Amino acid sequence: MNIINKLSLLTTMFRMLGVGRLSNVADNGDLASHVGEYEENHHDKSITYRSDRQDDSELILKLFNNPYNKLSREDFDFATADSHRPFEMPDFELSEIQTLDRRTHFSAFDPLHRELAAKLIKIFMRQRDLKELVSMSGYLRDEVHPDLFNYALSITLMHRKDTSNLQVPLLATVMPHKFIDAKILRKVKEAIKNGTYDSNNPIFMTPQQTTSKDENLLHYFREDIGVSTHHWQWHLLHPYRLQVHNFGEIIPPKNRRGELFYFMHQQVLARYHFERYSNGLKRTADLRFEEHKPIPEPYYAKIERLPSIPYASREKNTILRTFKYPPNETVTVKDIQLWGQRILDSIRQGTVLYENGTIITPKNEEYIDILGNMVEACTASPNLGYYGSLHNKGHAGIGQCHGPKGVGVMYENSCSMRDPVFYRWHGFVNWIFNRHKERLPPYTVEQLGFDGVKIESVTVHTQDESVEENEFLTHWEQSFIDVSNGLNIPLSNGTEKYSRSSPVLISYRHMQHRPFTYTIIVNSDREVTGTVRIFLAPAYDPDLGENFHFYNQRNVFVELDKFVVQLKASTNDILRHSAESTLTVTTDFRQPLGKTLNAPKFNKLRGCGWPEYLLIPKGTPEGLASKLFVMISDWENGDKVSGSVPTAELQAENPLCGVTEGLYPYKRPMGFPFDRRARDDVETLDDFIHRGTGKRRERFSNMYVVDTKIRFDGSR
Ligand code: CUO
After folding, report:
1. Alpha-carbon gap, residue 55 to 337, rounded angstroms
2. For residue 80, what pLDDT is reported?
3. Ligand 1: residues within 6 Å at CB?
4. DSSP per residue over 652-711, as a string?
5. Which candidate among 8, 463, 542, 611 keeps its CA 20 to 30 Å from the CA of 601?
6. Residue 391 CA, closest ligand 1 atom number
7. Residue 143 and residue 111 in contact, taking contact as beta carbons nearer than 8 Å
């Protein structure tokens, strides 16, 4: 009997014996000792059983396609028995991983699912080379829940050295039901089945009405495919569960992971509010977990968690309540409040209670990182038992507040940003981070300044003559997503008009801006390296009905770019194009699978990063007044981390997504200089960029503010 058959038989036996229950998947010593035995013997076992017909990278990427269909032999040939070598896998691991029923909603917010994913990742990570990985993942592809498989293999490919140049297939292309209106996908599938699909006439996805009238105005932002993709990829890079019980870390937390959790989500919130202001709306209220607290906005997802199984919808004013959390926890509103209180106590006292009972007072610059992991909470939290799991269980509670109707989008990272309640919940999470940030002393003149470096001017130009200097112009644009790898219909039977190699394009509308260039003229009295930070914020505060007070404005500054420059000892003309931003990615949802990452700008984190087309918020037809802030800081004495060099390599790292290994390249706090309150005499942004008083008041030479306008052109 060849090994695949042997495994299938064992699997069937386990199922018959009832081993396939989630309740059996608890950590226990027996399990750990079995795993230990396997680890010891592992290197004596060879695991390869495929033919060598195809390139390994191509093969592994094909495993993501049409995940709810069985692998076709034409796509993935496991070869004949004679090319197999002995293949063994600890049966208990397989039987556990198989316990997740294929119709269950997989979510990384579910601790049991995280546990299964961690085990699967461990299996993938320990394969000794790509060939072994192809064999193992190829075998497991149809044995485990498709969403679990996608999650675990994506994380693996992002973290193994031998797959670091592979573009993990974007979830929207292989599981489009989580991103695209179910009706549209049904229409496409019908057309293909009837033989009426015409690839020259892509189907247009029109903006959906999914929530309140106000929030529907923000559909282009909340429900944008690129926005959700960024969020999904970010969480793949920074999974909650980083360890397997008794095994230590499988995915070690990346440098400043917790701080990045704070910063990336803070920037999402700043952008969301910028878009609200662009649409004539005020700030949204934070959502605090209170008994019977109603959520004002309804949300009718119109997308599916599994093909043909929709996400639950939430009616207007649905209330928060006690909810179940796997495996057998009941989480009350009071639990969440208690964790919140303990976290706020930690912030007030500046101390952290670790699991082993020690109390530590971290340095200011280290505390935010600990706090991020504590609030989220991932397994790098200092004390999950005491500080609980505020953010994650908040997602889970909101995602289940509809009662028995099933789960809502808040229960999953791939689509939670579509729901208006995401911004209310993360508003509360960010409020907690701000409690800490506001306790920090304001940055000193020395920390803010950069003597000898003077920004003489900053201007913004587009090539379009209809656009004025210092004006951004935004407009709608149509792009395409190819869903041919995610339709799960058997296609190439020889008589169909459509085969798997043909693209199936759906057109979607998104925001875009005219490309522009910043011209920054800088005088320097010496050769020196600087870090340039560019931010944009609205000038006018609709909540107050007047220009922004710095206290509030600092929270809505969106970072547009951050990079390192070598200044010479004279006048420097820094020309920087909008498309060069280190914070954005230009994701093409039509990209063919198998493509490797060799474009100069993008590294292995590709897919994580703010969509380039949403770099500039929408603005208004009349032009939304905004403030462009540019700052150059001393790189050597402030941002440089040991061992790093200001090279193209450093600039290829996306500051929103972090680095897969080594140190985060900008040492100053994320969000600097707007992450802290300013000194007491600062009321406006203009005050912030000045130092001294009376006749001695002068601008920080390394800061510059330009009045800009964001004009939305709705005519195209
Ligand atoms: Cu990214 Cu709440 O963490 O969504």
Report:
1. 53
2. 35
3. 231, 235, 265, 391, 395, 413, 416, 426
4. TS-TTT--SSS--S--SPTTTTTTSPPPTT--SHHHHTEES-GGG-EE-TTEEEEEEEEE
5. 463
6. 2
7. no
- List the structure tokens of 180: 């695209």
Q: Whose CA is nearest to atom 4 of ligand 1?
A: 413
- The DSSP letter of residue 556 is G
In this structure, the strands spanning 584-585 and 610-611 are parallel
Cα gap 479→457, rounded to integer Å: 36
Give catalytic residue positions: 376
Centre of ligand 1 to C-alpha 347, Å, is: 21
Q: 248: number of CA atoms within 13 Å, CB side?
A: 2
Ramachandran region, residue 691 (left: φ > 0; alpha: ψ -120 to 50; beta: rest): beta
Q: Which two tokens stand for residue 565?
A: 């420059």
Average pLDDT in the 226-237 region? 95
* Tokens at 194, concatenated: 């009837």
pLDDT at position 365: 85
Mean pLDDT of the chain: 85
CA of 412 to the centre of ligand 1 (A): 9
Question: Could you give the CA distance from residue 56 to residue 135 in angstroms, rounded to a whole number?
Answer: 10
- Name the residue of 238, 336, 426, 430 whose CB sits within 8 Å of the most ligand 1 atoms, as the mutation to test its pocket: 426
Distance (Å, rounded) from C-alpha 271 to C-alpha 268?
5
Count CB atoms within 10 A of the CB of residue 54.
Answer: 16
Pocket perturbation via mutation, ligand 1, pick of 230, 416, 423, 432 by most ligand atoms within 8 A of CB: 416
Give 640 or 36, the one with higher predicted confidence: 640
Q: How many CB atoms lie within 10 A of CB 451?
A: 12
Read off the pLDDT band of 29 (50, 70, 90). Answer: very low
Which among 43, 144, 57, 130 is positioned nearest to 101, based on CA atoms?
Answer: 144
Q: Which residues of 163-172 are buried (b: 16+ CB within 10 A; e: fewer)?
A: bbebbbbbbb
* End-to-end C-alpha distance for the chain, whole angstroms: 64
C-alpha 496 – ligand 1 centre gap (Å): 42
Write the CB contacts of 636 (distance below 8 Å, at least 6 apart in sequence).
528, 529
pLDDT in tens, 440-491: 999 999 999 999 999 999 999 998 889 999 999 999 999 999 998 999 886 5
Task: Render 76-118 in DSSP notation, one character per residue.
Answer: S----GGG-------HHHHHHHTTS-TTS---TTSHHHHHHHH
User: What percentage of the chain has pLDDT greater than the value 70?
Assistant: 83
The dihedrals phi and psi of 361, each to the nearest 5 degrees, come to: -110, 95
